[in-house]
Specification:
The chain is α/β, with parallel strands linked by helices. It contains two helices and three strands, in the order αβαββ. It has one domain.
């Protein structure tokens, strides 16, 4: 079984404030995403069932942090 590391909101904010190379993936379901009024600035919209279609958009040279609700 693969263990996926986790990052806290505070650590992500600290890294973003320090201008570290971080990519945030907004992987919320479409209905949730459409009903939301906010999105993390600079995040990339990647629906969870379409990750394979968006692989070329996801940088491989930095920390990638997916989030959903």
């Amino acid at each position: 079984m693969m263990t996926v590391p986790r990052i806290t909101i505070e650590d992500l904010k600290r890294r973003m404030d320090a201008h570290e190379a971080v990519t945030v993936l907004d992987s919320r379901a479409l209905d949730v995403w459409k009903s939301s009024e906010s999105q993390i600035p600079g995040s990339i919209r990647v629906p969870p069932d379409e990750v394979d279609k968006h692989l070329s958009e996801i940088p491989r040279d930095r920390l990638v942090v997916p989030y959903c609700t």
